[in-house]
Design goal:
CATH architecture of the largest domain: Up-down Bundle
Number of domains: 2
Number of strands: 0
Organism: Paraconexibacter antarcticus
Shape: globular
Structural class: mainly alpha
CATH topology of the largest domain: Growth Hormone, Chain: A
Order of helices and strands: HHHHHHHHHHHHHHHHHH
CATH class of the largest domain: Mainly Alpha
Helix content: over 70%
Largest sheet: none
Subcellular location: Cell membrane
Distance between the termini: 20 Å
Pfam family, one: MFS_1
CATH superfamily of the largest domain: MFS general substrate transporter like domains
Keywords: Cell membrane, Membrane, Transmembrane, Transmembrane helix, Transport
Membrane topology: Multi-pass membrane protein
Length: 483
Amino acid sequence: MTSSTSPTPSRPWAMLFVVCLAQLMIVLDATIVNVALPTIQDDLGFSDSGLTWVVNAFLVSFGSLLLLAGRLGDLAGRRAIFLGGVTVFTVASVLCGLAPSGGVLVAARFLQGIGAAAQASVILAIIVTNFSAGAEQARAMSAYVFVSVAGGSLGLLAGGLLTEALSWHWVFFINVPIGIATVLLGRRFVPADHGLGFGHHVDWTGAALVTSSLMVGIYAIVQVSTHGWLSEPVLVLGAVSVALMTAFVSVERRVAAPIMPLRILSVPGLVRANTVRALLVTGMYSTFFLGTLYLERVRGLSAIETGAAFLPWTLTVAVLSRGVTTRTVARFGPQRVLVAGMASASAGLLLFSTAGEQTAFFPTIFFACFAIGLGIGSAFQPLLSLAMAEVPREDAGLGSGLANVSQQLAGAFGVAVLSTLADNHTKGLVETGHATAPALVSGYHLAFLVAAAITAGGAVLATALLRPRPVVRNDIARSLGTA
């Protein structure tokens, strides 16, 4: 059995550019498509319920396959899984752009999610295993965080520009040149690794069970907006997901070569940091989703104007990614920095909950976006570092996959919960005679207040679970699991 440790790349920053380019494709896709949905609906004749599957088909395949793809990266080699994922994503993007009907588009989006899962599941592992110096690894992680967090608001801008200037087809075609460049550059700059090998026993049963469980669970979550939390479809699907996951755990305890060694769940930093990050992600996703709806439905902003409104968030994260967070963590330790960051994000969400029908962009919305960007830019890097710090190098792909799965599940669950709260509150007010616009604002206020409370709860949990450690100059190197 060969080692999974990758050789140090001769040009690590070129390698980082390649994997961040792939990450940018995924993050942009998450928001760029949302802007084009009304045009897609008119062109392809989607019903309101059918249109949601342009988003949900991607989410279901992406979220359910992250864990499996991450482990396959450990076994088969992370570069192979990465390049294969980018290739599938790029081909699927062509099919999306050429889709002549709604059914073809949904199927292509499902395929696109498969490719995205493969490439996203190993990116973090590639960064962690190929940057050995503490300061350099921390800067690399900052670049990854910036792309992951700020790319969403750039997608809003790009989606508006492409849809208005060209057509909705180009929100998918834009991935093609990026994907081709990523594959070509990846073959040159991402170092080949051999992986642990599959040996004589491949745990296909476990792989099928965990993937099916996650797929059914995510499918149940995305059905909430249509059927409600206590509806029969959601409850039945949730029960099936739990049963499949229970069977998966039982299988993993018995097989000699499990697809997901349960020892990974005994790594305290991974489990605790991912739990805290899930609470932060709930607030982040709600801001993009509910904040966009508020700006467009209440304030009447265009897609381009809405994207521009999030620039204080994007620019703040960009500044922090230039080494500010790295130096702050080196001085004060990861726990203090991430707790302060989550408190800032919670304050931003609380400020967003005060925005009304006539609230000016400055200062309220500006400082709300700024505070959230400051919080996320400060908290994400130390949370990722703490999550991966104690993960064995041979399990780095699995750890990366778990980190991504927790984020996707938290995002989907958070949007489902908060959007349901907002919708139900708004409907209740309209039914009692309130005007539509004030009712919408009140619904968004409630959702933002709950998101602020969840994020603040994450800060409290981080204080209790993530113990501060003595800070020395090479602390960041150890926190990222370098040899």
